[in-house]
Write a structure and sequence with these properties.
Shape: globular
Low-confidence stretches: none
CATH architecture of the largest domain: Alpha-Beta Complex
Strand order of the largest sheet: 12-11-10-13-14-15-16-17
Helix content: 40-55%
Bound molecules: (S)-3-Hydroxyhexanoyl-CoA
Number of domains: 3
Mean pLDDT: 96
CATH topology of the largest domain: 2-enoyl-CoA Hydratase, Chain A, domain 1
Number of helices: 30
């Protein structure tokens, strides 16, 4: 018997207990151990019912992702599941934690299911560019009907134990200890001579072509550029076209095909990278984070409010300090309105909202931050104002309290100097809206204490963010790379590409939005202010491409005024803006620019390679410790399509020699100033390596 599965018996009841930390994935040892257990159970006439359950924090959370793409060792999961399903004596899955993917499929192949009340069920395969490959698309509809199956299989959404019970996916919810309850259930089944009960013998629910059609449309709209959800939907249909056993074979073949797709490879890379960034290189594993029992936020504009909501939303008390009573009332009113709307939509209970509101201590006096363990500063993005705030924070907070700035591009070292407590100072850069966006760029200066780094990484996770560590530089990872795309976008417009053509290319690549539509959404005034703050270091060509300033001067600030690069109707639906054409033509005439046709490939390469090259600089300078940080930050902060794996992974797939050759071509056409290749890119391309290798 494999060490990962223990086989025990007690009278007529057998138990196969899986123990494969951390998440009981069906690694080779688990599959072999289960196969052995099934044979022993089948071969012993004294045994009447077998329980399959797991030690540790969860039932099987899926197939072992780390084994994908490697040669199969021992029986594959579908084979083990087939053996379970075919048993002539009943089996009971006793599930808890996150019963996901292959784990959910394993449970569905057992004949009866009992769940701990806190269990979550789901098929996250689509998030890895896959579809369930061990019967999920065939057993689920037979047990739970089409609508639930389509929702589970195509979105990766999870359901709770109650919903699983109501939909027929589990038979019972355990009261008290799960293992005890499972044993009692198994005894009941044994005593009543309950039959083996394969979901495969049930009929498919009545076909509903309209529902399939509707789902195809929803997938095309909401999961643009992702092949897996559509494949998963088509796999459900197999149940109507062929017998159960054949449908299982076909489903598995589709899953294997998906595993070898570039999208799945990229999404699996993202899964691993998102976990890798939590482990900061060079930080001793035993370093103790400082305790954070109470936090503070100073500055309650849109960002400060979002940060306050994220902290209180995670159950952590937070003192929220505004400039004066008027700002405080406005901020608290806005927070109440946002949470109130979640309550109205049924996404949050009134009790939860009340609890969260009660965690916020309101103040207009920075001295009230004397008892907090961590302060996040989110005042106006002005270095002089922030310096004053940091000097005050250095005095009013207790020694050892962490002082973090939410600045997007100001120098945190300057703030560290102002505080007089440089080792306690760091950046915590949230993305707008801060209570929603997952990415958190944590910034360490050369003087930030290691335990401060450990604390902000840990705190980020506690407030349900995805913290990524960056060093100090202008714009950190995301905004620094984005600024290169924006610059190239303006240059492309000056050269003759229309904002709509550029947006279309970016959208087809897989971004949720093109750069010009994004500018209109964020507000052209905001973009103009950012350009102004960087004017001192901008080139003459960058300053000349002053489209944003022209629109702002004409009172067109984007969506909020109904006009920007696009015009907007009352429902904020965008359409072509003839004024934009006029502005571009007049601009060309004024500066004697010749407009030319620019192909989609050039548009894409200019925009994305500009970011890749900057990413290589960020990596080469050590601002990002690894390429993982860059990919994770760009996917979660800017919407860089996850199916590409992020800019650095994507460039590796193309081949850095090819990327470099194109950058050299742009350099010859556009000049050294914008296209000098990053030294790291040149070095890796020469060595025929990638950023990751
Ligand atoms: C599948 O099942 C295909 C089948 O349909 C068909 C087959 C034929 N494998 O996330 P965490 C590791 S596809 C290997 O930080 P949490 C993870 O890398 C699979 N390792 O914890 C990390 O290790 P490390 C469908 C896995 O508590 C550690 O566990 N299943 C796997 O925040 C802790 O992870 C999924 O897609 C795995 N399947 O969340 C489930 N899962 O520390 C994916 C996790 O060395 N997993 N690890 O970096 C999850 O969603 C979350 O990990 C989970 C726990 C909710 C389970």
């Amino acid at each position: 018997m494999s060490e990962m599965v223990t086989f025990r018996t007690d009278g007529a009841i057998a138990e196969a207990v899986i123990d494969n930390p951390p998440v009981n994935a069906t690694s080779a040892g688990v599959r072999q151990g289960l196969a052995d257990a099934i044979e022993r159970f089948a071969g012993d006439p004294a045994l009447k019912v077998m329980i399959v359950r797991c030690e540790g924090r969860t039932f099987v959370a899926g197939a072992d992702i780390k084994e994908f793409g490697k040669p199969m060792v021992g029986p594959n999961l579908t084979k083990v599941i087939e053996m379970l399903d075919a048993l002539e004596k009943p089996t009971v899955a006793a599930v808890h934690g996150t019963t996901l993917g292959g784990g959910f499929e394993l449970a569905l192949a057992c004949h009866y299911r009992i769940a701990d009340p806190a269990t979550r069920f789901g098929f996250p395969e689509v998030k890895l560019g896959l579809l369930p490959g061990a019967g999920g698309t065939q057993r689920t509809p037979r047990l739970a009907g089409l609508a639930t199956t389509i929702d589970l299989v195509t979105t990766g959404k999870q359901i709770n134990a109650r919903k699983a019970l109501d939909s027929g996916l589990v038979d019972r919810i355990a009261e008290g200890d799960l293992a005890e309850a499972a044993r009692a259930y198994a005894k009941e089944l044994a005593e009543s001579n309950a039959p083996a009960r394969s979901a495969g013998t049930l009929p498919m629910p009545e076909d509903d072509p309209a529902l399939f059609e509707e789902s195809r449309k929803t997938i095309a709209r909401k999961m643009r550029g992702q092949p897996a959800p559509l494949l998963a939907l088509e796999a459900i249909r197999l149940g109507y076209d062929m017998p159960f056993a054949q449908a299982l074979e076909r489903e598995y073949a589709m899953c294997l095909e998906a595993i070898s797709s570039p999208e799945s490879k990229a999404l699996r890379h993202v899964f691993a990278a998102e976990r890798q960034v939590a482990k900061v290189p060079g930080l001793a594993a035993d370093i103790e984070p400082r305790k954070v029992d109470k936090a503070g936020v100073i500055g309650l504009g849109a960002m400060g409010r979002g940060i306050t909501m994220a902290i209180a939303g995670a159950g952590i008390p937070v003192t929220a300090v505004a400039l004066d009573e008027e700002h405080l009332a406005k901020a608290m009113g806005a927070i109440e309105k946002m949470w109130g709307s979640s309550v109205k939509k049924g996404r949050m209970s009134q009790e939860q909202m009340d609890r969260q509101m009660a965690l916020i201590t309101r103040s207009t006096n920075p001295a009230d931050l004397a008892d907090v363990d961590l302060v996040i500063e989110a005042v106006t993005e002005d270095i002089d104002i922030k310096k004053v705030v940091f000097a005050e924070l250095g005095k009013v907070t207790r020694p050892g309290a962490i002082l973090a700035s939410n600045t997007s591009f100001l120098n945190i070292d300057t703030l560290a100097d102002a505080s007089g407590r440089a080792e306690d100072v760091c950046g915590m850069h949230f993305f707008n809206p801060a209570h929603v966006m997952r990415l958190l760029e944590n910034v360490r200066t050369a003087r930030t204490a290691p335990d401060v780094v450990a604390t902000i990484m840990n705190f980020g996770k506690r407030i349900k963010k995805l913290p990524v560590l960056s060093g100090v530089c202008d714009g950190f990872i995301v905004n620094r790379m984005l600024s290169k795309r924006s610059r190239e976008g303006f240059f492309l417009v000056e050269e003759g590409a229309s904002p709509e053509a550029i947006d279309k290319v970016v959208l087809s690549f897989g971004f949720p939005m093109g750069p010009f539509a994004l500018g209109d959404l964020a507000g052209l005034d905001v973009q103009a202010a950012a350009r102004k703050s960087r004017a001192a270091t901008a080139s003459a060509r960058e300053l000349r491409a002053d489209f944003v300033e022209q629109m702002v001067a004409a009172g067109n600030l984007g969506q909020k005024t109904g006009s920007g690069w696009y015009v907007y109707d009352e429902n904020r639906k965008a359409s072509h803006n003839p004024e934009t054409d006029k502005m571009i033509a007049a601009h060309a005439e004024k500066h004697g620019l010749k407009l030319r046709e620019i192909g989609e490939e050039e548009i894409l390469q200019r925009l994305i390679y500009a970011m890749v090259n900057e990413g290589a600089k960020i990596l080469g300078e050590g601002v990002a410790p690894r390429p993982h940080e860059i990919d994770v930050a760009m996917i979660n902060g800017l919407g860089f399509p996850a199916t590409t794996g992020g800019p650095m992974f994507w460039a590796d797939q193309i081949g850095l020699d090819k990327v470099l050759a194109t950058i050299e071509k742009f350099r010859a056409e556009q000049g050294d100033e914008y296209w000098t290749p990053a030294p790291l890119l040149v070095e890796r391309a020469k060595e025929a390596k990638g950023f990751y290798a």
